[in-house]
Amino acid sequence: MKKHQSIKKCPITNSENYFSYLDLGTMPLVNNLSSTKEESLNCDKFELKLNYFPSSKLTSLSQAVNPEILYSNYLYKSSISQPYIEHCKKMYFFCNDMLELSKGDKVLDIGGNDGTLLKTFLEINPDLDILNVDMSANLVKECIENNIPALNKKWGLEVSKSIPNKFKLITTTNCFQHTKDINDFVKGVKNSLNPTGLWCLEFPYWKNSLLTNQFDQVYHEHAYYYLISPLKLLFEKHNLQIINITSHDIHGGSLRVIISHKDTFPIPPSVDMFIKEEENILNESYYKKWAKNIKKQTLHMDFLSKKGIGTEDFYKAFTDVEVDKMKRIYDWFISDISEEDLNRQRKDFYLFFSEHDKRRGTDFISVFPELSEFYEECKNV
Q: Is pTM beyond 0.85 here?
């Protein structure tokens, strides 16, 4: 069995023009936990590097690890996350508002893990006809034991054709970015989606991850890092269309994208608005500056390693200086501060960052859009 494949061609445009912009070296697989220290030290490590394809604006890993290695016996279970369960409840009502799910309506969850999403849907609407398709044998076994119909398969066109049903709703949450063969995946969805059905796709939004420096989103399970721009191209290639986009806090900032067959629903202007916002910020220069900044943040770990301080020791405790700093911050939070002092600090905040932007050629609001309202308040003091 080949352990990995290189990704040197854009799966959307077939272009072989790309550049690499973040190289984190070789790393072990994060969810394949070892039983012993010796096993952990000697486990397989794989290249962890990002490539960018300008033709589609898609970011990918340079190598995709064989999914049999990643998912055959998967240790993470969706059911351990109460926030995800609450998220699934809200998703049901969101989808129901668009589709009016009725008795006997067929719902497919691709990469449904231990069946948490479908179980949550059934608790609200017990008359749905559901199915989970997942690569992990241990999770599919658990689904079946809990009366959630499930198939232990890698989703794609061939598996889709083996299922006679057409589904009114297909859900894919935090799974699509794990898939290397995205064209086969989308072909399967198109084949299994009924003519007026909807595909509800969720994934960590790469623009948000970039702007908030979430480089921990980069790991071997995430083969691709999605913006709306490449997804629109991909879906149009398969005669599908995006008809709705909403933002959600889960998984560090995700998008929920609703997809239908071509020409079955009107396309809202928000799709082009997302793309325009991406184009205004993200370009080759931005990616390379971002990667340079991330590498600076990781240098302290190299320094500690050279000093003989291992990662295990690094995480055992905070230093006295760090503890004192946290105590000062905590004391400040619980203290009574006059409005005058608050305004003075707001003014200092604005003066500092506006001067920083002038000197460094940066843009505080572009990097921290969620603080724009606060920034304006400080500016107007």
A: no
The pLDDT value recorded for residue 330 is 58
Task: Mark which of 281, 309, 342 sits at the end of a domain.
Answer: 281
Burial zone of 333 (CB within 10 Å; 0-12 exposed, 13-18 middle, 19+ buried): exposed
Helix (H, G, I), strand (E, B) or coil at 84: helix
CB contact at 8 A, 206 and 226 = yes
Domain boundary among 261, 281, 301: 281
Looking at the structure of the chain, the number of domains it has is: 2
pLDDT of residue 332: 64
CB 158 within 8 Å of CB 185: no
| pLDDT for residue 309 | 47
Determine the pLDDT at residue 304.
46
How many residues appear in the chain? 381
- Based on the fold, state whether residues 171 and 277 are members of the same structural domain: yes
Range of the domain at 331: 318-381
Does 144 share its domain with 242? yes
The residues of the chain scoring below 70 in pLDDT are: 298-336
Q: Are residues 264 and 356 in the same domain?
A: no
CA atoms within 13 A on the CB side of 356: 11
Same domain for 239 and 325, yes or no, is no
Residues 186 and 119 in one domain: yes
Q: What is the pLDDT of residue 327?
A: 63
Residue 73 lies in a domain: no
The pLDDT value recorded for residue 317 is: 47
- CA-based diameter of the chain, in Å? 69
